[in-house]
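Sample pair:
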Amino acid sequence: MKRRELLAGMAALGVAGSVQARPLMPLHDKPREMLSPPFVDGQGRDLTLADFRGRVVLLNLWATWCVPCREEMPTLDGLQEKLGGDDFHVLPLSIDRAGMKVVRRFYEEIGIRHLGMYLADSTRAMLAFGALGLPTTILIDRDGFERGRLVGPAEWDSPEVMAQIQTIINERSE
C-alpha cells in the first residue's frame, strides 16, 4: 500500500494528524467518470456537477458537525479567494440534514466570504461520490472527470496545494 493511500485511510478513521500535516491530494493515473446527485445552492436552485462543466472544480463533501471539516473550511475559503473564477471553483457540498440554515449560520460564525453554499441529501451524495468519511475532497477536471481524491482535512490554500490545482487548471492550454 502506498504511503498516501495509507494516510488517506488513516484520515478516514480519524487517525491522521492536523490539517497542516496532510499530504497533497493523490492524483489518479487516469481520469475517472463520476456520478452527480442533484444538489441545491444558497438561492435554492437545483444543480448537478454538469452545471460546472468547463471549470476545474474542487468538490468538498462536509458537514457543520464534522470537526475536521470545520477546521479546513477557512482554507477552502482562502483557495476560492485566490484561484476562484471562470477557470476554477471550490464547491463545498454540505450534507447537513438540518438544511441550509445551519450552513448559513456556520459561514457567518467563522467569516466565510468567498465560498458559495451548496446542500445535498447526505445518503445520495455519500453513495454517488463513493465517500467513506468526511471531509472527502474530489478534484474534477473541466470535462467532469475525477482527477484526484483526498479523505481527511487539508490546508487547501497552501502554496503546494494551489500549485497542484493550478497544474490541472493549466491543462486547458496544452
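The mean pLDDT is 88.
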